[in-house]
Amino acid sequence: MANIDIRLLRYFIAVAETGHMTRAAERLGIGQPPLSQQIRVLETQLGVTLFERLPRGMALTDAGQAFLGDAYDVVRKLDQAVDDVRRVAAGIKGRLSVGFTSSSALHPFVPTVIRAFRRDAPSVSLMLDESSTSELLDGLRDGHLDVAFIRQPQGDIGQIVFTQVLEESMVLAVPSAHPLALTGRAGKAAVPMTAIAAEKLILYRRRTGQGLYDAIIAACHGAGFSPNIEQEAPRLLTTLSLVAAGLGVSVVPASLMRMQVEGIVYRPLAPAPRAPLYCAYREGVLAGPTARLLDHVNETAQTVVAE
């Protein structure tokens, strides 16, 4: 059975359904003599007679009747397999694993992309994972992840493509009773970086968010001072909780202002450290769910630039 051409099964089914060689040939778009020849080839390969040749048509033999159900199953399964693989290649079926750092996920860009992809490809099994930058990049390298949203490339970046999709300012987060929360025009004037030189600084742990951590440290050094780091928090939201508790101040991406944490006031900084957002994926992605997600990343990034 493994050596039988699938076309022979389709020919057999057409003749069985029409009960007539000429009508089956018309349905298939081939000549009647070649179709008769192919049916004889199939019977020879099977070693059985599938049809009784009648004066005005073709009738299935008992063997042919028994074979018809199996022929339907084989053709149906093959058609389904072909359809499935084409849907996977088109990115509307299969599975996709997307990772992100906590600061990346808190920017509206990432959930916007995920929602657009989910609407576009609801049949794709979507797996989401929050982790540190280094762990996400390891996941890309070993194939456990397909796409990752991170703040900064790091380590061995071979075989991985990094596309910067946006860049945002970072802002100062201070307790609402802090003097820096009350100065300036209704608290809207930019705070110079030098103003936080003596402040107790709470940072997102470098091991978890190296990109943001390094950008803040570089901005402090650029302003002529070394920061007084009071604590390093394991999560960005933990950083905000510690600030709200009055344990210090922090510098966070401007997108976190959307969180509206009680007890925190956000102030612009001058000069403001910058927080980029990158989309990372393995080289050579040409098709499938990953390529489809990347299309949404590009479309959303263009919208952000336009705005």
Automatic annotation (TrEMBL):
The keyword Signal does not apply. It holds the Pfam family LysR_substrate. It comes from the Bacteria. GO terms for molecular function: DNA binding; DNA-binding transcription factor activity. One of its GO terms (cellular component) is protein-DNA complex. The keyword Nuclease does not apply. Keywords: DNA-binding, Transcription, Transcription regulation. Residues 4-61 form the HTH lysR-type domain. Belongs to the LysR transcriptional regulatory family. This is LysR family transcriptional regulator. It comes from Pandoraea fibrosis.
